[in-house]
């Protein structure tokens, strides 16, 4: 059980690899979700063009729009989601390769070099920490 010294907060990490078999179906579902969010008042109609453009141009963005951590824990008794962030990006995946493991593609080699060398060249790169090709959300 919980003691006064134990935090009531828990970080749950989940990593999934999904194969997109039908990009049009994923994009169509994301566009339908956008329309639902507008009808429910969760998304401003003025933001529709931007959201639809993003999910149409990038299947990873469309998938990130469809997968919602709130849905994963919303029905779990005794918990309340405090904060969530998630991202989606294309990766090189070969399940038969002995070199491939979960999390391996998530490591930013440049970030590793910074940690090893103690250098930070963020200003040279414009300060943008988000990797190209990724899609992400937070709530």
Question: Major sheet: size, sense and barrel closure?
Answer: 2 strands, antiparallel
Basic shape: flat
Mean pLDDT: 77
Succession of helices and strands? HHHHEHE
Helix content: 25-40%
Total E-strand runs? 2
Q: Which strands sit side by side, in order, in the main sheet?
A: 1-2
Termini separation: 29 Å
- Rg is 19 Å
Portion of residues in beta strands equals: 5-15%
What number of structural domains do the residues give?
1
Structural class: mainly alpha
Low-confidence stretches: 109-134
User: How many helices does DSSP assign?
Assistant: 5
Q: Can you tell me about this structure?
A:
This protein is mainly α. It has one domain. Helix content is 35%, strand content 6%. The protein is built from five helices and two strands, in the order H-H-H-H-E-H-E. The chain has helices at 23-39, 48-57, 59-66, 69-73, 109-117, and strands spanning 85-88, 135-138. A two-stranded antiparallel sheet has the order 1-2. The longest helix is centred in the first third of the chain and has 17 residues, at 23-39. The radius of gyration is 19 Å and the shape is flat.
